[in-house]
Amino acid sequence: MDQEVRRAALRAAAKIALFTTAATAFGCSSNVEPLENLDDPSVSGDEGSTDNSSDEMRKRKKRDAGKADASPTGNCSDTSANQFECCKAQLKATFPPDSGTQLPKPSDETKACCHVLASHYDQAARANNTNAWTWGDDSRVKWQCCSAIGWQGSATCTPWGPPVPPSMPKRRDVAHPLAEVA
Amino acid sequence: MDGSSMSAERVLRDLRKDSRALMPEVPAVPHLEQAGIATWTGRMINEYSSAIVFEGLARQLEGAGMDDETVRACAEFANEERRHGVLCGAVVEALGGTAVFVAPVQDEFPEHGDVSRAEAALRNVISISCMSETIAVSLIGAERLEMPEGALRELLTSIYADEVGHARFGWRLVPRLIELLERDAQALGSDGWCERLAEYLAIAFDALETHELAHLNPHAAPPAEGACLGLCNGSDARSLFYSTVTDVIVPGLEQFGLPAADAWARRSEVKQAA
Questions:
Q1: Structurally, how many domains does chain B consist of?
Q2: Is B260 within 8 Å of B201 (Cβ atoms)?
Q3: Does the pTM of the predicted model rise above 0.80?
Q4: Which of B88, B231, B247 sits opposite A38 (nearest CB)?
Q5: ipTM of the prediction
Q6: Does A9 touch chain B if contact means CB atoms closer than 8 Å?
Q7: Which residues, listed in sequence order, are joined to residue B102 by a DSSP beta bridge?
């Protein structure tokens, strides 16, 4: 991503969020830090050894690394050299050619095999195999598979639309006295 | 607006009719069409499915005593999210895909019934508008700047404009809700809303990071011509996500005296404690 594009995108977001300096009467603290200069490349998160975002990404990668191999692929065992072929066969049986948009609820086994294929074709795409985008001769199961794993297992960028906010552990069993007051 | 059919467990959304009526002219990049279909399908699902978030928030703001105009604006955002879903579906169809999807199962909208309605609304406004939609402004804004002029960029611009409105709505509402909470605290004596909000912010930041990273594949590295179809580099997008949090969202919340920097730093403790 071009650094000017990056800074422009951050500036646009900042214009929306950082619109007031008269807010010190509110909230939990009166200590409002001066806002960072988003036009200064040195503080806008550009790549570099001191970059906060890079640190975050490294930590995340480390955390994610341990999660990668937990897929229960059933008969297609993780240690099998033929896991990919096994999963292909299983998915083609699960999603017959005439299944169209009628999707059965995918089993954990199906989803795990979909991840195996998605991972395989992601790697192939990274190696500039353009056929990988269409999943080669497995294109017939791609739509069903991507749908089964929520379109999150293949090389896409889709973080649009706010998710449902998180809830918080209840602090007591009774309702707040103002919870019912409009 | 859409066709939908309900099975025993899953709802199939069929946007083909509406989406086909809005198909933009898309650049011919055959070797990236499938990647484009996958990307815009994911967006179609996320956008369309997020309508319930604004419906829930509108109900909550009404319950918190917000004025009719504010409540109506929020309810309208739900319609905008559905429209975005149809527009993303239009891109899917234009690329040769099918604007049909299985609606994801979503968590219930949190009512936060153990705190006042203003506090409950503040939590959700921060999560939805100040966090998620502000990230969307940043990521979609970058994508838009990288996309060449044309029908697809116009479509993206119309979505971007709405996302700006959704984010701005929250940033303007936060001080009003804080004022309500301060007033209640003065009238009834402090009930510790600040401490609870600090705790919630850490939870919300943790959820934000988990959600965004799940949708930003670090291995997505399409060739340069992918920009004309809206394909983004996952690693760059992740980096922009973190910068938006630390350079925009955290100082944005801190300007209201909310302890966002500390909450961001503590977010991993939340996961460990869960």
A1: 1
A2: yes
A3: no
A4: B247
A5: 0.85
A6: yes
A7: B12
